[in-house]
């Protein structure tokens, strides 16, 4: 459970809603749009059923795309990155499609805890109804929505996760375009951070087999701080690149849905279905 104190320019939510099932990953946050969400540790695909559409591909996952810094021992104390709220589209006539962009500590080689913050972006089948929600989470505890934090297509968002102790941290979002900041201190009684991973991720947190088209989510000024105080960029730290592989109901086979790349302090995650899209 969370123990939280708020340092905000807006009143923050103090409750979350949960469905503790991996199949119902839209689980811990019941937003105004009527959906729910809980992030999960990376689910690596050890035996990919398809070849990647990247020239260099290190890992495939069913839920994460982006870049991960990995250390053998406790190393990372914070992670930050700036991205733009995407204009999401869909060609699905039946359901709302969602994904999330976030930064976090742990969740890869240390799968028992994740300290993370970011936004959800969703689009309805009419393509005119989009919704966005800002949130924070100390997995395996449930995610909580920030309230009073405006989000619009094109807004510049800076997300930062900072470790205070292995069981506590600070999560901060800044809307640079609208000059609004929200920040919260969180404590977990159910898990402890290893501080082995720092990541910049777009996540498929839904049980829906299709993803919304977010174009490209690009994290700029991406860096992680180590215990020694050194700042490391994804490119300088030789981050692992990861992309999402899903079963495509349209083609009745698996396909790689994203192309992720790293260049210095920039992580780009492009929606790019290998078998085609829209």
Automatic annotation (TrEMBL):
Pfam families: Peptidase_A4. CDD domains: Peptidase_G1. Keywords: Disulfide bond, Signal. Disulfide bonds join 98-122, 110-194. The active site is at residue 203. GO terms for molecular function: glutamic-type endopeptidase activity. Residues 1-18 form the signal peptide. GO terms for biological process: proteolysis. This is Acid proteinase. It comes from Gymnopus androsaceus JB14.
